[in-house]
Amino acid sequence: MTLASQTTKILYEPDGTATVFSVPFPLFGAEDLECAVNVNGEETVFSHGFTVQGLPDGPAAVVFAVPPPAGSRLAIRRNTRRVQESDYPAAGRFPAKTVEHDFDRVVAMIQELDEAVDRALKVALSGAESSGELIRSLLEIRDRALSAMRRAEKAANQAMLDAGRAETAALQTAGDLALVSSLGDIQVLASQAVNVRKSWVLDTEIFAGEIMTMPLWYWPGRNHLDLRHDGISCVLRKAGVEIAGEYQFEETGDISEPSNQVRIHFEAKAGDVFEAWALSTITQAKLDELEGQIGFIEEWAARAESGLAQAETLHALYPDLDQAQDGDTLQVQVDPQDNKTLIWGPPASGAGNVAAPPDVNPPLFYDPQGALNINIPPQSGGGAYLGEIRLLPFRPSELPDGWFFANGDRYPLAGPEGQALESLPAGYKEDWGITVEEVGGVEAINLPSLFHSDGRGMFLRASNGVARQPGNVEQDAFQNHQHPAYQKTYQAGSSANAFCSAAANAGYIRLSTTGGDETRSLNVAMIPAVYLGV
């Protein structure tokens, strides 16, 4: 036969009753067929529990003793055994059918390998990294995302805890904490009751416009329902009113009774994660206030980190401001001209206020009027500063939080890594080749790199900051030197040396090559890392 089709696999969505499924591709034997059933993301591959009909002439069909469950996904795949079963005689009539059969098996195996490779993780044809390196990079990105998610969840949980404490202190009346006892142990909020929070994994698909039942009860119209799908907030809309937002839902109950259902206007699949908070109106107002406070705190945390670096710079530029030693306090006053810009001054009377030098970047602002005292850390302290580069004894995927592999990778400019890189001083970015470019329609900014364009890691060397700035790459070279050369002569035609010239007393120099692929000193590997603090 011929193999004109390249199909080696077919997918079905069983209904829970069907037991017979057709096989629309050539098959050499029942032993060359395998099936897989995926239920809620868990896949089971098996080659038994079914029979194959229609062989050897076809069309073939798979018959299951027990129908695959509804809602699952069934895959039927040809997996030709990797054996050569024909024994060709040394002479005699040409076995055309046997040869064709064996060639068909070989082509089938190639098609099956193509299908398997198409499902594999691959790097670009022009990519320089290996598949292992790509996987390590993806795992590193995943670890960073998980770390960021844990930090965000911790902050959100703390905000919810603070909001709950504040509300509980303010709402101690019996009416505000009333529960509907008829619903047993299900906690239902009254008009201003305690908060209820639930999370769950969807066990079946729900289409847009359908009702979703939640493991949480609340009072529509009285409580604020905060619904999230896979971590993304859903938008509440009124019935029949079109609004912007990818994930929208409607309340289905009314103010007269509690409800545990909403109508979603997006498709949700089995395995999707939902979270819901039923908040009293007071809690929601406090939560909005706390979210603003969190943003203010995060902004000040970034400014404080920048301020520490500025304090170090000022201490070096204006030693007369602080007659004491490292660790003393430098007072900061608000400029009365704009009530925002900080003016640096000594902790005691004397030199008077001095404005921060223009090369301190970024400027630090302080909104409320008043003074701010910043401790100048000792120069021997072990703290890391934004943009600091160190050699660390950790693998790239195991670097401590806030540290990034200094290999020139790019990050979205709008992300936390991109914002940290963008906030670095202009001179730093110029020296280390940090630029913003559009990658796949998204603005991205790169990390510093301590690797040469040929992939070699570069040694660090001290510079006076005049002849060479930080980040300046000096190409490898040998220092000027000489090698002595010796010359020996032979008579013309002498057989003492096969390379002798035909002329008498002609000289020759014999040269040879020795050594490795580069000139280097004894060394131990470390990982270059840059601190971004995110």
Give the total of beta strands.
25
**SS content category:** alpha+beta
Helix-residue proportion? 10-25%
Number of helices: 5
Give the rounded overall mean pLDDT: 75
The percentage of residues in β strands lies in 15-25%
Low-confidence stretches: 168-194, 320-330, 344-382, 494-506
List the helices and strands in order.
EEEEEEEHHEEEEEEEEHEEEEEEEHHEEE
- N/C terminus separation: 62 Å
Number of domains: 4
- Shape descriptor: flat
User: What is the alpha-carbon Rg in Å?
Assistant: 36 Å
Largest sheet: 4 strands, antiparallel
Which strand order does the major sheet show?
Answer: 1-7-3-4
Which key features would you list for this structure?
four-stranded antiparallel beta sheet; 22% strand; alpha+beta; 534 residues; 5 helices; single chain
Question: Mind sketching the topology for me?
Answer:
Elements: E1 9-12, E2 20-23, E3 33-39, E4 42-46, E5 50-53, E6 60-64, E7 73-78, H1 96-118, H2 131-170, E8 196-201, E9 211-218, E10 224-229, E11 232-233, E12 235-236, E13 248-251, E14 259-264, E15 273-279, H3 281-317, E16 329-334, E17 342-345, E18 354-355, E19 371-375, E20 389-392, E21 403-405, E22 410-412, H4 416-422, H5 426-431, E23 436-439, E24 442-446, E25 527-531
Parallel strand pairs: 12-13
Antiparallel strand pairs: 1-7, 2-6, 3-4, 3-7, 5-6, 8-15, 9-14, 10-11, 10-15, 13-14, 16-17, 16-19, 17-18, 20-25, 21-25, 22-24, 23-24
